[in-house]
């Protein structure tokens, strides 16, 4: 029988990985840079337009030791690791970020911010969702706010977070992919009227790369 202590140790030293791959970052501040993506399993936010719903059930994905995850990243020349999901902060990421940074990686995370931040990060992309409120811990730590625009009400939703963020937090509006044709012209006009914002596009989809 696995003891409670063994379960705790496993949670700290292994993580459920849906997929890991080397590509270009397609969104936000680091668009166009080579990056090793580590997509962790597990999410309870429930975005109906999510394009990786298969990531939601953490138990359906194999668990890998942290040194194995880092070893996979080291097979490629890029030294930016992006932890995504699912919702990666469902897990304690202290050990993973420590190991990645020790191996020379710039650690980035993409999170809805609904859980307290764990791990040591070089860049935090906060992408809030209407379906679950963010934890206040994220506000002072976010380097980038990336708001997904699915309908017109999402502009006000995005603006609601700005007073809580650091003054140097970069602000991005990104059309939800299936609604790009409708939302992109609205975002263009919004940014022209509110130049503190920038447009983020899923450029990897336009380039047809993973």
UniProtKB/TrEMBL annotation:
Residues binding S-adenosyl-L-methionine, per UniProt: 49-51, 86, 127-129
List of residues binding [4Fe-4S] cluster: 43, 47, 50
TM segment ranges: none
Binding site for substrate: 24-26, 39, 84, 210
Matching PROSITE patterns: RADICAL_SAM
EC number of the protein: 4.3.99.3
Name of the top EC class for this enzyme: lyase
InterPro entries named among the record's database cross-references: 7-CO-7-deazaguanine_synth-like (IPR024924), Aldolase_TIM (IPR013785), rSAM (IPR007197), rSAM_sf (IPR058240)
Record pathway: Purine metabolism; 7-cyano-7-deazaguanine biosynthesis
Residue ranges of domain Radical SAM core in the record: 30-210
Stretches assigned to coiled coil: none
Keywords: 4Fe-4S, Iron, Iron-sulfur, Lyase, Magnesium, Metal-binding, Queuosine biosynthesis, S-adenosyl-L-methionine
Catalytic activity as recorded in UniProt: 6-carboxy-5,6,7,8-tetrahydropterin + H(+) = 7-carboxy-7-carbaguanine + NH4(+)
Keyword S-adenosyl-L-methionine: yes
Family the entry assigns: Belongs to the radical SAM superfamily. 7-carboxy-7-deazaguanine synthase family.
Self-association state and partner proteins as the record states: Homodimer.
PANTHER family assigned to the protein according to its UniProt record, in alphabetical order: 7-CARBOXY-7-DEAZAGUANINE SYNTHASE
HAMAP family xref list: QueE
Name of this protein: 7-carboxy-7-deazaguanine synthase
């Amino acid at each position: 029988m696995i003891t409670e202590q063994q379960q705790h140790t496993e949670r700290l030293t292994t993580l459920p990985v849906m997929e890991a791959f080397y590509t270009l970052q397609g969104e936000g501040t680091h668009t166009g840079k080579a990056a090793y993506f580590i997509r962790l399993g597990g999410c309870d936010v429930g975005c109906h337009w999510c394009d990786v719903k298969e990531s939601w059930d953490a138990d359906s994905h194999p668990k890998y030791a942290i040194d194995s995850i880092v070893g996979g990243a080291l097979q490629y020349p890029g030294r930016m690791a992006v932890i995504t999901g699912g919702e990666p902060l469902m897990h304690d990421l202290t050990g993973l970020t420590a190991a990645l940074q020790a191996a020379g990686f710039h650690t980035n995370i993409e999170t809805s911010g609904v859980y307290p931040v764990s791990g040591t990060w070089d860049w935090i992309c906060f992408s809030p969702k209407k379906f679950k409120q963010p934890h206040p811990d994220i506000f002072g730590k976010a380097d980038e706010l990336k708001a997904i625009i699915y309908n017109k009400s999402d502009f006000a939703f995005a603006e609601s977070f700005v007073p809580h963020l650091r003054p140097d937090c970069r602000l991005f509006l990104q059309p939800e992919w299936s609604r790009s044709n409708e939302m992109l012209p609205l975002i263009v006009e919004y940014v022209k009227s509110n130049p503190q914002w920038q447009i983020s596009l899923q450029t990897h989809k336009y380039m047809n790369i993973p």
